[in-house]
Amino acid sequence: MTKGFSQASADAAGIAGEAFQMANKRYKASANSADFLFMLTVADKKQHYLAIVSKDTGETLQTIDLGRDKKPSYEVDVVTNQGYWPIV
Q1: On the CB side of 9, how many CA atoms lie within 13 Å of its CA?
Q2: DSSP state of 45
Q3: Phi and psi for 70 in degrees, rounded to 5?
Q4: Residues 63, 50: contact at Cβ < 8 Å?
Q5: Which of helix, strand or coil describes residue 30?
Q6: pTM over the 0.70 mark
Q7: Average pLDDT over residues 48-69
Q8: pLDDT above 70 covers what percent of the chain?
Q9: Contact between 40 and 52 (Cβ < 8 Å)
Q10: Quick check: 65 pLDDT over 80?
Q11: Is 24 or 30 the better-scoring residue by pLDDT?
Q12: How far from the centroid of its chain's Cα atoms is residue 12's Cα?
């Protein structure tokens, strides 16, 4: 029985170590992230925008007019910082 608890303890320590390594990797990656993010915004009920917002100031740096589309289908490439959406 002691052997079983010992193995369970070793397994738990291994899992905790892996979780810490993954969290540390994500933390380091976030420190190197862009200083802006893409955010879906609404000017009024009829006008929607994809905005580029500064993480430091909260200022809108640029907007892309999406028209009346409340739930646009778009993708953002975080490597090239480009947005893509289908033309209809």
Answers
A1: 6
A2: T
A3: -75, -30
A4: yes
A5: helix
A6: no
A7: 86
A8: 72
A9: no
A10: yes
A11: 24
A12: 29
Element (DSSP H or E) covering residue 69: none
| SS3 per residue for 8-22 | HHHHHHHHHHHHHHH
pLDDT greater than 70 at residue 3: no
d(Cα 73, Cα 44) in Å, to the nearest integer? 19
3-state helix, strand, coil in the chain (%, to 5): 35, 35, 30
C-alpha–C-alpha distance, residues 10 and 3, integer Å: 11
Who's near 26: CB < 8 A, 6+ residues apart?
A: none
- Structure tokens of 8? 């369970």
Which pLDDT does position 78 carry in this prediction? 67
CA nearest to 52, candidates 42, 62, 40: 62
Average pLDDT estimate for 3-24: 75
Q: Can you give the pLDDT at residue 57?
A: 93
Distance CA 63, CA 84 (A): 13
In this structure, the number of other CB atoms found within 10 A of the CB of residue 52 comes to 19
